[in-house]
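Hey, can you fold this?
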Amino acid sequence: MSSNIVPLISSGTAGPLGVLHLPRLWLKASLGAAGKLHSDYPAIGAGYDQMVLDGIGIAKGDFESFIADAKPSYIELENWVLQQKGGSLDQDAVDKLNAAITGYIHDDGTRGEILGAAGREDDGTVKDAVNLNNLDDWAIFHAAELK
């Protein structure tokens, strides 16, 4: 296996805080800080990554610094998030964020590219970004690690 790791935690995964994509963001940022993230991925990107940070009210720079300096486990990250937010998250904000993540639909071009790279016909049945991104991750992993 290569030293550049494909992040295989789905954006549809939440940890105990119930925030979708936060485990994936932790993984990507942690791998990025360690210089081990596959080159096709940003450590903290403008899409779901920024949506999560905005949704829970954490500044990107603060998040990056915490990941780089503390190298936290996932639970340590959640505990840090809670400390930053005074002990709890706004459940309405989390629900709104999670709905935005699960409801996001890629444009037709992006959908076609992802399905084509994954070797799946675009029959219109897979439209949501979470599942398309899963297929993309799995195709990149397969090409990078198993071929």
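Oh, and this one too while you're at it.
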Amino acid sequence: MTKSDFIEKLAAKTGLSKKDAGAAVDAFLDVVKESLEAGEEVQFTGFGKFYVQEREAREGINPQTKAKIKIPATKVPKFSAGSALKNSVR
């Protein structure tokens, strides 16, 4: 499902126009992004949790040259599904 498909389904389910549904989806994504940038978690009980996880620096291997490379530490966004969401897809 693409973002456009999602907006269409959201508009149909809520009675909003596609423009308003698109604005709501964009606002939701902005709030999640801004919260993660600020180091906060975004949790919806039963649905899941968006959070930032830190990866430590590590050593890797370039698959083409087989040379060892240093991979720097970084932060990555993660999503953990809640129990209600997990149970709905079984």
